[in-house]
Amino acid sequence: MLLDKDFVATEIAPRTKEKQEVIKTGVWRCPICTYDNEDSMSECEICGVLRNPLVKFSGNGDSAAANFKRLLSLDMPSPEKEKNILIESELAAKGPDSSSASMARDEHGGVKDRDSASDSGSKPEILISSMRSVSLSSKARTENVNEEMDISNMQYKPESWMMADQAEDRLSQLNLAIVGHVDSGKSTLSGRLLHLLGRISKKEMHKYEKEAKQQGKGSFSYAWALDESAEERERGITMTVAVAFFNSRKYHVVLLDSPGHRDFVPNMISGATQADAAILVVDASMGSFEAGLDAIGGQTREHTQLIRSFGVDQLIVVVNKMDIVEYSQERFDMVKKKLGTFLRSCGYKDSSVSWIPVSAMENQNLVATSDDKRLLSCAHLRTSEIIELRVSACGKLETGAIRTGSKVLVMPSREIATVRSMERDSQVCNIARAGDNITVNLQGIESNLVTAGGVLCHPDFPVRVANHLELKILVLDVTIPILIGSQLELHIHHVKEAARVVKILSLLDPKTGKVMKKAPRCILSKQNAVIEVVLHGLVCVDEYAKSRALGRVSLRSSGRTIALGLVTQILKRQE
Ligand SMILES: Nc1nc2c(ncn2[C@@H]2O[C@H](COP(=O)(O)OP(=O)(O)OP(=O)(O)O)[C@@H](O)[C@H]2O)c(=O)[nH]1
């Protein structure tokens, strides 16, 4: 069997890169519109597609392994110095409230897409905000992180993107296919979005409106921005995939407006094979939604199955034409229930699907919250029902670098999560490096597994977790000496844990650091000593020589700091 070249590129090889190989000397072919661009061009002259965008991880084979390696992107430019700690974090698990999929979410601290936010002020964003929950996610999952993994001999080689001077800190490309049943409003929605986001000027829009009216097709004016051929306009349907783009803070979004008519499914496929994520548009009106789901000829059904088979696992369902059904909550719920069941049967996880009721025609719920009270109440209900568990962690990046899409090991729970988005100084960023204070939005993990005082680290370089430590301490001005059995409070990075002194190994000369006395009975004010403590719970920790951030402690008692110290050894765990 002869495999079609496109198929090979899509299913086996890292798709975009393969397809952008130089095919003639001095030119590269755009994977979207197939235009042959000059080699010097970094984006397609015709449709604006970036030449070598972030390659989508495609799940199997060698290329997948290579991609996965690349996506395990947390690491340390100086492996000799510090092996494993990446974020010493305040890991504030914000849980469901920080879901970026919820309509009213942005008021509560979600990641803002400033491009659209600027249009809509500080109001919650709707369809556009849901686009942020779509990401170029890795499908891989690292499992069986070995608790006792010996990391001492492992050398990590930093990748070039981690180095500030070599980093390509530019927008990643997100190919977003717009699919759905014929006449569901895909082109109108695309045209509206482009207009609202400033990609279509008022003048151009005015021209489309005028021309559409002249041909007695006034309702198609937004669709005409994408349906450019005379035949498409005459017939009022999309026939080829229309390509348009806009930039958000995070992504160079390439919109692929697909034809809905069943005669043009092959064209739809050619666009959808490029997609990283999709917007499925359904028509909420009576009969139309049902027709789209019909087992014979329903394109809602067919398109959904097709895009799923191309590996698109993140979906925004736009329930359009809500104006026709009077913005009925009941209708929206019905659509969600029926279509939700079908999506699950296609393999979509509830957490990867966002639902947005909109009216593309009346501009409701697209880049700003609907001002229609009926839709607003519908939206709020949706928020509390379909909350997507998204967990945020904030803290300081101690070593190395991290980027969107990275897999991280969440300690001490030992769960793998994916970095969905990041914020630095309240700005969305794609890459962060040592020293940055960031908020990381994680996906694929439950909020109770991300705890205050936890650490995010490279899955291959797990931070140590212990409850038995050797400490070198300097006792402050105290009236009560420290004895074996003293109950203290140990503070280490952002964690506080009850500690019991189990051994006093030695007193040290404060000037030379040499042992003055072994096994003393107590430690007095201003003395230096080496002690062993056993903690009530486990903490993420490292020896001070390897990580200052995770190896520095203070001991407190009765509300006062009584000693400062360093972790000199991590000892065998005590039950
Ligand atoms: N009432 C109402 N009509 C809409 C809405 N969105 C689109 N329409 C109308 O639905 C018809 C089809 O819209 P299109 O945008 O061409 O639909 P499409 O899904 O792109 O069509 P194909 O690409 O041919 O499948 C047009 O008459 C639009 O004006 C909406 O929100 N409300």
Model description:
The structure is a single chain. This protein has helices spanning 5-11, 15-19, 61-71, 114-120, 127-132, 186-196, 202-214, 221-224, 230-235, 265-272, 288-293, 299-309, 329-345, 373-385; strands spanning 27-29, 36-38, 85-89, 172-180, 242-247, 251-257, 277-283, 315-320, 353-357, 391-397, 401-403, 407-411, 415-424, 427-429, 431-433, 437-443, 455-457, 464-475, 482-483, 487-492, 495-508, 515-518, 522-523, 528-541, 552-557, 560-570. The chain is α+β, with helices and mostly antiparallel strands and 575 residues long. The protein contains 14 helices and 26 strands. Mean pLDDT is 71; it is low at 1-23, 53-125, 135-153 and 375-390. It has a six-stranded antiparallel β-barrel with strand order 3-10-16-13-12-17. A six-stranded mixed sheet has the order 5-6-4-7-8-9, with helices on both faces. It starts with a helix and ends in a 5-residue tail after the last strand. A hairpin with a 3-residue loop joins strand 12 (407-411) and strand 13. Bound molecules: guanosine-5'-triphosphate. Guanosine-5'-triphosphate is lined by residues 180, 182-188, 219-220, 223, 237-238, 259-261, 320-321, 323-324, 359-361. Belongs to the TRAFAC class translation factor GTPase superfamily. Classic translation factor GTPase family. EF-Tu/EF-1A subfamily. This is Translation elongation factor EF1A/initiation factor IF2 gamma family protein. It comes from Abeliophyllum distichum. InterPro entries: EFTu-like_2 (IPR004161), GTP-eEF1A_C (IPR054696), P-loop_NTPase (IPR027417), T_Tr_GTP-bd_dom (IPR000795), TRAFAC_GTPase_members (IPR050100), Transl_B-barrel_sf (IPR009000), Transl_elong_EF1A/Init_IF2_C (IPR009001), Znf_RanBP2 (IPR001876). Residues 104-117 have a biased composition (Basic and acidic residues).
